[in-house]
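Example A, followed by Example B.
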Amino acid sequence: MAIAKFLNRLVFCMFASDVGLLPTNIVGTIIENSRTTARATAEQFAGLFGAMATGGAFGPFQVRHFNGGLFADAEVIEVDSFSLAEILAADREDWSDVEPSIFGRCSSG
């Protein structure tokens, strides 16, 4: 269940990035800048998810509050380098046509 929740959050971030609700390529940027260790990448995602839960700063960016419960906690998992490469490849796709309702009640506010 933790893996599914984490992946759902990542896909939402990819969508939000592609529609302008988050900085462009935020998921890929996190991976590229912290992929030296699984822990470093997990810490960065926890920081992003935490900012999304309340609204506020994530590095140099101001992040909106996303309500609806998807980011109610900042729980993440440490991902191996093979999986990070797969996530990075997925982030390069255009997620803007995804129907937002697949994420449940999660909207920016």
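Example B, a separate protein, is given below in the same form.
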Amino acid sequence: MVNQNLNVLVTLKSAAAAAGLAQLGTGVSNLRQNFNKLGLAAGLVVGVLGAKVIQTAIAWESGFAGVKKTVDATAKEFAVLEKQFLALTKRLPVASADILKIGELAGQLGVKKKDIIAFTETIAKLAVTTNLTAESASLDFARFANILQYPIDEIDKLGSVLVDLGNNAATTESDILQAAKEMAGVGKIAGFSGQKILGIASAFSSVGIEAQVAGSSFQKAVLKIHEAAATGESSVAGFAAVAGLGAKEFRELWKTDAAEGFRLFVQGLGEQGDQAAITIGDLIGDDVRLKKAFLSVAAAGDLMTEQMAIAGIAFDENSALAEEASKRFETTESKLILL
């Protein structure tokens, strides 16, 4: 019965079936030995596994059809791409349907053909190691990277930043990414890097500020400071005083490292105590939610400094995502998915 099942399955034309059978062969061999020891019939198990491979093959064909729908490539390029996706399924304990869905979304979001596999691997790992789903991670990360014009083939660095922040903050990766996405447009204009935006987003999210409020508050403040710095020293003097710098010094800092200027401004607000609310009203605006957002993060002491530092280190080391994924891949559940 074992041989009959295998002969039937070998006739499947799908590449996914071929890949499935390669893993099934090893699994059958091991299962046969174990079941013989127990005096059980291995044929029944093989039949079940065979049916699973057929189902997987059919799902694979449908899933890859979705990739073809959104990616513009030749037949030869699709053949190579399919082999690369199959290789991912052997290494990542993520359902093949989810892997192909990420690839489909990558094409829909304009990820270049050469970057689709790297993008898919990063997103799949994030889906395993964070509270982000494969779809939300695909959409939000791609949009975040697109706004910043960040190279997709290096997106794993931002993935490491997000994972490390999620492990070291009183918030979730999903909330951090949502806030960061809201901040990205203005952050890009002022010259903030992706990792520093993620660190700032983590600080706001950690004190309970919702993503949209954090994003709008950040945008208003950064635009005010950016316009003041571009106008002249007299215009930026108020922000400089809060940051503990002279007007000329702060203006130069804003030109070279706006994120550091922003951090010093928030830190200065925290040192003002009750006066901080008045300062925010005078320099940025009287919006109640804006004031609450800045007062909350400013009152958290060194929180923003710490989160930005974590983001910077995680970006440079680029290991947090791989390490976290490795831990998850060692679980029994992950090994069963691979089998």
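On Example B: Residues 1-28 have pLDDT under 50 and may be disordered.
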